[in-house]
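Input for the complex:
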Amino acid sequence: MRKTILSAAIGAVVLGLGAQGAAAATLDDVKSKGTLTCGVSTGLQGFSAPDNEGNWSGLDVEYCRAIAAAIFGDPDKVNFVALTATDRFPALQSGEIDVLSRNTTWTLSRDTSLGLDFRTVNYYDGQGFMVPKDLGVSSAKELSGAAVCVQSGTTTELNLADYFSANGMDYNPVVYEQLEDVNNAFNQGRCDVYTTDQSGLYAIRLTLTDPDNYVILPEIISKEPLGPAWRQGDDQWGDVVSWVHYAMLNAEEFGITSENIDEMAESSDNPGIKRLLGTETDSKLGADLGLDEKWAYNVIKLVGNYGEVFDKTVGTGSPLKIDRGLNALWTDGGLQYGPPIR
Amino acid sequence: MADTTSNAPLGESRAAALLYNPAVRGFVYQLVTVILVVGFVWWVTDNTITNLQNAGIASGFGFLDSRAGFDIAQTPVAYNNDMTYGRALVIGIINTVIVSAAGIVTATIIGFIVGIGRLSSNWLIARLSEVYVEIFRNIPPLLVIFFFYTGVLALLPSARDSIALPLDIYLNNRGLAFPTPIFGPGSWLMGAALVAAIVAVVALAVWSKRRQMATGQQFPTIRVSIAILILLPLIAYFVSGMPVTFDIPVKGRFNLAGGAVIGPEFMSLYLALSLYTAAFMAEIIRGGILGVAKGQTEAAGALGLHPRKVTRLVVVPQAMRIIIPPMTSEYLSLTKNSSLAVAIGYADIVAVGKTVLNQTGQAVEVVTIWMIIYLTLSILTSIFMNWFNAKMALVER
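Predicted:
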């Protein structure tokens, strides 16, 4: 908590003392530093959580690695900075981090007045509610009068207020800044209801003392498009971050995985695959991005395609076992759509 | 002046005289300092504004008038999510003031009891007071807050199994729920009775003091005053036909519905701040009392005063002059420590400010507001305590 005040203050001071360079050319900065500084959450299973040895894993973490792989050909050249919901924007604005990959909802005001840019959505989420089973609640409409635990400074907090007033219900907000505090409070029965993005609820349920005693209600009360953010006005950097996502989507669509990529690169005659993997002669798609021609190859080889990453971090290959749902490729009826690489 | 410079040429001597004149030098140094400080502040401000513009971040305090959209748990004045960020910040300020003021009062009382206790001739009381001081003085305030929040209050039973206390008061891990009075028609009489009681008490105090001055006879002012303050409104209550009913907390589906609740966030912050600061105050009070010459106590004893009266009438008033200045610092640090509220989710100015900061991204503005508010609270406390100190100071004739 002290840290947040400090970083907000430092953010203010850094802005004050003239961090002019921070506004543009992040790619050059990152290249000259030799590592990518990536802002992630302080610990949300499936998105970004450190294990016992301090190794980070999760969907947001994989995106940091993918960007590092695209720039350096090495997914480990990442410096992870754990940020609370309150810390994250000042940290990005002040140049403390290069990119924010932290289950952050893309909203209009964040895109405009905060000096941030969003373009891609790597997880389509929506806000839900979790309650203990023994309360006997089966719908969010029955929650009037409940004490609701929520993390402060999030879109979740605002949606919660909107939802309850729209339905003419009242509630008792129990608000903490740190995710861990919200989890503890819910675990100890300080509140009846936990609300956050549904993916988060599944992740948090795993960490509770008795996960089977909790149920996630069917209502989804908001759209939460989560994706990486960067400083506004740095278009080249924005291109790099978003095309890393699109490359991973295209790879999945072409059926290229980290396993079969070498084989595909050699044998495939598909010009689309050749362009993606940088094997087409005289291609300068990578150079146009300010990267190596092998950028997408490195991303897929070293990190994986979107489906692989999803499966490993939050999907069926993970403890969370979240369905692809809206996050399936457009060819499978989902919303994930990678623009053509050409 | 003329003698020392008489050998030098006239023009040079004047310049040299000016250069070596302490008053002039002092003025020049101060002028240079002021110019440097103002210049630095101007440079930082200008740079901040330019950089915010370059980064595409909206700046200014206009956001205070936009709709907040989030809810706050502890609202001492009316608030809902349709009101503005400015209003939300006001709630935060009031909450900070409430917890600080309550903490200051309680800490002062505990501090006095423990401080005097440490000097007690009773071995057990003195040792207990010492242990208390050593424990709380050596733990960071944040840990004390966590201790109460997660160690004590979280262990209370859930809302369904609340501990029922007398007078329909319930205690559970959601806080302390108690009935709130609803004033029906005719209850104005009670208010009027209370005002009358206060007037009567003041008059009584003036009269009894005058009588003691004139005749030396004492009157049990305090006991009679308390009786008046309770009895008059009570009589009015029955005369006006018992118009007050109570909104009693009853178990609802989730929580206790009805009545009012003091949340565990407030309670743990309040307890932690009071007990923590009281340990420091106890030491200040002990120091102040020890600072009063022993002869004063002995002289008062020789006059035949009861030891309790010696403390109350002779020792404490003199000790106050030593105690007040360092107490001011403790009051200030208690107020500032209340910002640790953010760790347990009490909606003080820092917690609310951080939410506002995060919803709007106005980091510079919110940090500025925090600084202004804490500065204002500190200065107000200082001014009051300085006034009090001047009033208590030894009047030398």
